[in-house]
Design goal:
The protein has 146 residues and is of the alpha/beta class. The protein is 34% helix and 30% strand. The chain has a 6-stranded mixed β-sheet, with helices on both faces. The chain is globular and about 40 Å long. The protein starts with a strand and ends with a strand.
Length: 146
């Protein structure tokens, strides 16, 4: 069984990674680890603001997990630099593959972004970057780095 790490954010683009996983990995062959990272707080000592941010991320992840009822789903919320947290979580969870989208910034549409680049260079497993563009059959195309 493959353990798939899905780093998500609050964008519709991010949900394409979920569609990719549903299409390519049947529930009986995959265990999903949904992850969200709040980069706004940085690395600080545990504070009330961090606890509140983690609580909000957990609520969002739970909502997304409910839409994946056929899959075994675990959730991870974190505060800090997204790329670092994603690579660390992949190691800690024993993930076999990370499926993520490229940059969510509108001015970075032709680039994969710094977070994806960091993950590709530091992940202990394969990384699939799901393309935003769909081909003529509305199938997602992606790249596998390793």
């Amino acid at each position: 069984m493959k353990r798939i790490l899905l780093p998500l954010e609050d964008t519709e683009r991010s949900l394409k990674a979920i569609h990719y996983v549903k299409k390519h990995y049947p529930p009986e062959d995959a265990e999903l680890v949904l992850m969200m990272v709040d980069e706004s707080l940085g690395y600080s000592v545990k504070s009330e603001a961090e606890n509140q941010a983690l609580k909000e991320l957990d609520e969002k992840l739970e909502t997304i997990a409910q839409s994946l009822e056929d899959y075994k789903v675990n959730t991870v919320s974190a505060v800090g630099k997204a790329g670092v947290r994603i690579a660390r979580t992949a190691r800690e969870t024993g993930s076999n593959v990370i499926v993520m989208t490229k940059s969510s910034k509108e001015d970075m549409l032709s680039s994969i972004g710094t977070t994806a680049e960091y993950v590709i260079n530091n992940a202990p497993c394969d990384v699939v970057i799901v393309s935003e563009a769909a081909n003529s059959k509305n199938e997602y195309r992606g790249l596998v780095y390793r």
